[in-house]
Amino acid sequence: MKNKKFNSFLKFALSHQAQKSPNHQGFVIPVILGFGLFMLLVAIMMITRSGDDKVTAILQKQTAESLGITETGFSRSIETLSTGNNGAFLKKNYDPINPNTDKPYLGPSSTDEWTGGTTIQTTVSNGGCDGSSSGTITVPLPTNLLNGTTDNGQYTLLAYRYDDVNDKGTFILQGNAILRDAEGNEETVATSRIQTTIDIVDREKILPQSFPGLFMEDIIKLGNNDMNATSADPSSIICAECEISDPDTDCVDGVPTEDAIHEEAMGANPGAELVNVTPKLGRPNLPSVPTPSGNEIALGRPGCPGGDADITALPRAGDTPNTTGTLNDIPAYEYTVECLKINGTNNLTVTTTDYPVHIYLIGDGASMTIGGQGSLFHVGDFGEFAIFGKQDDGTDDTNQTISLNGGGNSQFFVFAPDAEVGISGGAFDPCDMGGVVWAEVWDGSSGTGVDYCIPEGAAAALGAAFGLDFERVGLTTRTFQHSSIIEWTRKEAN
């Protein structure tokens, strides 16, 4: 509409000028040419401005793409560092020299603790495969940690620094948006760089299926013992000091094979079976062994020289459960013994349908023996009947002994860190006895074909009976976890 009015005005002006100056009609042509030149300049300016706007839009899009590529790289780096044992790198530094500034990206001096890999502490033993039981796991640098590609570009993790004072980790990453032509040639069209900081937290990770249905500090001699668990709740048998005999044949990539652990390190005879049970070497994170509350019933030496007659049932008539100072504040019958022995054909039946029963072996030389033709029977649920010994004195010698003949429904928990434990049993199906045993030496039962069963839900049952420290038991590795981003800064790419 404005152009139409302007053209009308121009036509009127030119006509009027021609009427006023009939002798100057040649003036019209220069005016028209001047106006045409003006319009041409305006058109050129508009076209140029339109092109600039288009270029600016393209550059903004490419910059946004490069920033997105950089953030994708950070997300992938965090995902990689959260996988397996890779969190070990969160407490190591990687800060090479920036070629554009001849200075490190983050710190005062260049450092590279990543390229050669790193190690983490673990309670898993390699059983002597590398000539030691070092308690460390080597963690190689993940191949995709330092760089990667996306559909429209590539990213690089330029540097990482760990602040051991404040437990924070800082990353610098760069992303390049790449333009590819039909022939596959590439050109970097935009670059972005970001700096991010996260919190780092130490954690102890319990390895899967490492709750010990059987743990011995020094020696396991399985012999003909079969070890069983359910498919719904697999378990393990673990020995801390056991070692394989021939690293050349028993180890693969510095790790002992399960057959070597079972047969060589733990002395299982050919034909001894493991059903849903994995043999492992290492030292699980056991809790402290419980001690009597101070209100226990002293049994002395029943069935032993100088003691009273055999005890055939616990609790006895007239025994009173302790209601104060007990484990996990659960009322229980607590007994202490120096020596407990069942002789001949007598049996010991422990009934826990009303209250748990805890037997404590007191002092060096204490023992509990169910011998002869007698058997140990337990009436109740697993976790309600427990036998506790003394804390290990740190020597290779055992100072207490537990030897049990089991019955088909015997389920017990033995925690005796300074004891040698052995079991024997009859032809019960499917189990001669069952439970969880943590001690120093497993021996005295290798000549018998005992079917030993680790109860389903054993860990949870011990946690309910004695506290979560008894449930959260297993081989562990030290690991590191991270928070979400606590600082994010866009940096100049130089």
Descriptors:
494 residues, alpha/beta, 6 helices
Task: Note down, in words, how this protein is organized.
The structure is a single chain. With 494 residues, the chain is α/β, with parallel strands linked by helices. The protein folds into 2 domains: 70-207 and 480-491, no CATH class; 212-474, no CATH class. The protein is 20% helix and 36% strand. The chain has 6 helices and 31 strands. It has helices spanning 2-20, 28-81, 247-250, 258-265, 458-466, 468-471; strands at residues 94-95, 97-98, 103-104, 111-112, 118-121, 136-139, 147-150, 153-163, 168-180, 186-206, 212-220, 226-228, 235-239, 251-252, 255-256, 274-275, 277-281, 297-300, 313-314, 333-337, 339-342, 348-351, 357-361, 367-370, 376-379, 385-388, 400-406, 411-425, 433-442, 451-453, 476-491. The strands form 7 sheets. It has a 15-stranded parallel beta sheet that branches. Strands 7-8-9-10-31 form a 5-stranded antiparallel beta sheet. The chain has a 3-stranded parallel beta sheet with strand order 19-22-25, with no helix packed on it. The longest helix is centred in the N-terminal third of the chain and has 54 residues, at 28-81. It is elongated. The two termini are 52 Å apart.
